[in-house]
Predict the structure.
Amino acid sequence: MKKNILLSLLILLSVQVMSQEKGSHISIWGGVGSAGFKYKMTGVDFATPKRDILTGGQAGIGYSYFFTKNVGITIGLGASHYRTRATLEGNFLSDKFFMLGEYTDNDLYEGHITDYELRVRTQNWTEFQTSKFLEIPVMLNLRKKFGKEEGFGFYFSIGAKLQIPFSAKYSIEDGDHAEQQRLMISGYYPEHNLELGGFGGEWLPQHAFGNIHNPSERLNNATGKLDFKFNISAVAEAGILISLSRRTELALGVFIDCGLLDINKKENPKAMFTGPETDYVSGAVNNVGNGITYNSILKSTYGVNKRYVDKVNTFSGGGKVGLRIKLGKLSKKEEQPQPTMEQPQLNLTSSTKDTVYIYKIESQPAQNDSIINEIMNALKEISKNAKTENDMVYGDIFPDHIPAEEIDILFDPIYFDLNKAVLTPASISNLNKKVLILQKHPEIRLMIFGNTCDLGMDTHNFELGRKRADAARNYLISKGIAPERLDPSTLSKYQPERPNTDETNRMHNRRDDFKPIYPKK
């Protein structure tokens, strides 16, 4: 079942990544901080329990799709590493011990069989617990960007992770040297009220009693697997966004993950320490501790199946860094500088009997949609307002008394920033030159065509082209040019100066074109 769910989510992730829809991006992230297991140890009457969450980490890759500029969702695939240290603090100078069972000693007194209790005492007994989870995060994202170029912003994400353990184990810590003891094995003989290898810490190797500093080499199951199960973790993140380029941004933030389910399986309960099934081995120094089995604190029980650790939850929190790569078309709000490339050569052509037009690129074939029809109707309306054939000049040139440089100024387009209809300083300077020529030659009319690049919806671009044409017309009127001499219209994205193949070309398509009309003498 888990494999089928994982496979389905991976297929969904692959399909969404390949679709590269507008408003989406791929994220690669990594985080580091405190990451471990939260639980409470009870019933440990032979030592003082303590638990510490250690440093862990996470990493992954995800796909995000934003429904609006500021709201989106993320689905991904990642992994987390959790680490915890559990310590049973205490020392051997205590009357508290762990009972392993009753055994028989044939050697205490020659020829006399004596029963005894096998006991264990710990000294700063330390167990490390680690686990790795495969994760599938599903997140709701909120973001807000600031500045003219939106180079900085904030983000907040909230959601959940589906966590599947693929590695979980425990291990115990040895002493650094022989004098740093971890475990004491002793035997208590009720018949004689005598404990050997007990408080005094004396070695009795012939009875396999004494201190051990390297329990990982002596005990059975000193390292083993933990029984963890599927988990769901609640997740929250917050941080800042820094643009590195027009397609990439850096995310720096903090995160907190809280497990919602108990991941500890409660199967096959066992005591924390268990003695050998037969008599405890005796006879040599190296036999001290041999045959005794250790079971992890997380798996152990005491009394009548009472667990030292009942409920285990994951927890992590720390810092996170991510790299986001935008897919598809770029954001409409990204600002672009004015084009600095040399302007193309203008060619004077006659498109009707009544007017003289200037076209840098021939019109594209009309398509069967309402926007194209509205644009074509606008062009026809301008022609209706033109003077009759007897009044208008047509042909390939203007009268000789109008200098060629003045004609070039009238033809010279002005450019706009992305998704803007606001005149820039360069555009205002250009229009001021046109004002001087129009004042000098009051017989000239000027047609103004607002253009856009191919980014955005048709309806939006149509209105944006109209606003750009109106911006130039209103400025010329403010400088004293009669309104009836100025005919604005929009061509939307359908009369590009250059093919919309890259951003450099698109900069030249966000413009106003000017077509002067001159009456016959």
Remarks:
- The first strand starts at residue 24 and ends at 38.
